[in-house]
TrEMBL record, chains A, B:
SUPFAM superfamilies tied to this protein: CinA-like (SSF142433), Molybdenum cofactor biosynthesis proteins (SSF53218)
Protein name (database record): Putative competence-damage inducible protein
CDD domains (UniProt xref): cinA
Similarity annotation: Belongs to the CinA family.
Organism, as annotated: Hydrogenoanaerobacterium saccharovorans
InterPro entries named among the record's database cross-references: CinA (IPR050101), CinA-like_C (IPR036653), CinA_C (IPR008136), CinA_KH (IPR041424), Competence-induced_CinA (IPR008135), MoaB/Mog-like_dom_sf (IPR036425), MoaB/Mog_dom (IPR001453)
NCBIfam families: cinA_nterm, molyb_syn, PncC_domain, PRK00549.1
One Pfam family this sequence matches: MoCF_biosynth
Domain MoaB/Mog per the UniProt entry, residue ranges: 4-171
Amino acid sequence: MNCEIIAVGDEVLTGDIVNTNAREIAAGLEDAGVRVRRQIVTSDNPAEIRQTLAEAFDRSDVILTIGGLGPTYDDITRESAAEQMGVPLVRDPETERRIREYFTATGRELTDNNWRQAMIPEGGEALVNLNGTAPGIWLEKNGKILVQLPGPPRECLPIFRESVLPRLRERTGQKRVTRSVRIFGIPEAAAESRLHDRMTASRNPVIAPYVKDGEVEIRLRAWADTEEAAYALTEAPAREIAAEFGDHAYSLNGESLSEVLVRTLRENGLHATAAESCTGGMVTAAITSVAGASEVFDGGVCSYANAVKAGLLGVSEETLREHGAVSEACAAEMARGVRKLMRADLAVSVTGIAGPGGGTPEKPVGTVCFGVSTPDGEYTLTRHYRSQGSSVRESNRTRSALEAQFQLLLAARRLGKKQ
Amino acid sequence: MNCEIIAVGDEVLTGDIVNTNAREIAAGLEDAGVRVRRQIVTSDNPAEIRQTLAEAFDRSDVILTIGGLGPTYDDITRESAAEQMGVPLVRDPETERRIREYFTATGRELTDNNWRQAMIPEGGEALVNLNGTAPGIWLEKNGKILVQLPGPPRECLPIFRESVLPRLRERTGQKRVTRSVRIFGIPEAAAESRLHDRMTASRNPVIAPYVKDGEVEIRLRAWADTEEAAYALTEAPAREIAAEFGDHAYSLNGESLSEVLVRTLRENGLHATAAESCTGGMVTAAITSVAGASEVFDGGVCSYANAVKAGLLGVSEETLREHGAVSEACAAEMARGVRKLMRADLAVSVTGIAGPGGGTPEKPVGTVCFGVSTPDGEYTLTRHYRSQGSSVRESNRTRSALEAQFQLLLAARRLGKKQ
């Protein structure tokens, strides 16, 4: 069963907005066993819509349109699709009722145009839209399936997940599952090299590496008759790959680094804190993005200026004078200082040169020092990031914030083992 | 002149990655005066590529392909496009030289396949790729223009900006410019209502509202013979719209709220700080994302637990007991405390319930209190966010972080006027 995804709308066509709906829908279709054959973006122009739909109906089994379900006279996506399926549009009483209720509840004025949104193809189903007025549409006829979804993501995606995917899953033979092993601190080339033979040999699951923000994500993708069977195919390979990378493989089930860190701290009854300079609060922001962070985190310090490193964290003037703020000596004192201040078990510090300015020959942009302070001891390390492109600053900060969390995770595991 | 954008690649087609190249390319084309007629995503399958290209060549003046320029035998995008243009592929000596250099410099092994990337259509130009081996391709023939770009964004977009857009701009009549007035703290419905008549009446520029993270962006889009003339058309309307919203319209030229805040602080010689609870460091992270923040920012505190609010910022036990951490009383003391601690001119505090848990009938999820402390006085305010969807926590945190920065901006302007 193959499908074409047709997004209708000048906003997407002319680059005002990114076609994010299409990505999730394409992945969802493939997971459900429907092969995506083509994706198209067409303008709101009626002639273009008609032509695009006619071509799609010739080629594919499932035609899924996104957008173009507005109430105005030139929103002809509904009409064109019904025409291709060879049926007229008819009024859906349940949808009419919902539209009436929606306008009453929000105190808005109903115009004649709004009733157009209650029209669905004869023999089709209106798929409930809890976040807007236009229902989704499902019609199966003569070996074709027509799916129509409203454009705004907050309307489109819930209808797709809740009403479209279940129907499609019932009709397809194979299901697809994707699972990731997330690896921090191993360069992509090294990861690929160590996994090369396995990746080449493995057909089901297919195994491929993806790089993002200095992390390597190993994606395992498997097909089987059911989702459960497909997921089971990923189990052994995922564990073997994780074992290959030890502590660096921090997640096999989709958890982010922050989620794994917070969970690990909680499981070991530990509190962590952070003193940040160049990352400016990104580490503590990441930790607190996880619900339940309050069980493992009480607070942190952004010590951007030397005066604050000295005054609040106790970094010595001597260290600042002799080694500078961007040094392992300073990082050590920052970590020690914030750990004491917050009465935490573990602390990490970050001090570096995010760029684009501020670099020197001795300490170029991308030089970042980290300190870790625990009851059992302290250590420091330095990274030298070589980020490229227009967002050197953000890239260096992002990678530093991940490194800081990773170091906390390693320290938490070590401490946890001793308990 | 109209264009079709064809992205080649299973990764985009099946939803592994978002088609971000297409958004920037479509917007760039429209700015250059080329109308985007259709966007297509096709698989790596040779037959699909051939068919898609044939159809595009029938319909449009400019055919722009993204991806499919790899070195392996089934990367037939180059061949198919040259076929459509009626020319053979020929080896480009300069590209061969670059490929040889690239492999020598990176110590990688050259295979026969790699030379395929030096093939360009006869009569065409190889567009230099500084970030990879496959050059872009430009060919003009018989009223058609063929543009081919490599898939990875860091290769594709520089070639598009530096080599393709200038060539296209020379060939088109009209240029398009987009400019935004960014408005904080006005609900979308109110902004649309106030601008309704203006938006309906204005044809050039076209004026339309976009909402993101609780901000309203009024986009003005103008067309003229030159970019300068188009930009000039936006000048008066942009200023008038900004004047309509006073302080709420914080930017007319693309600056983000953080950038405007840092610039305003710097222009007025002021230092700011922040004490954050639920935002966890997002405010200080945003301020420090702006290069030059060290001139206006020394540090901040993430006081997540009550003990830290009390111990480090001096929030009284009485306040915490009687009003709780999420209260204007607590926000006032947090702001006062961090301002003193950091010896800043201005301070903002944020304390609230980001969710999804933690809400009560008196203080539901989305209740966030802010405090502002300045030499001239203090004030507090409460917001009640009603975020929906799966990321309530992130939505509440993001909106709170923006509100905090906006309050600092208002305070900075007020203080600045008095100087």
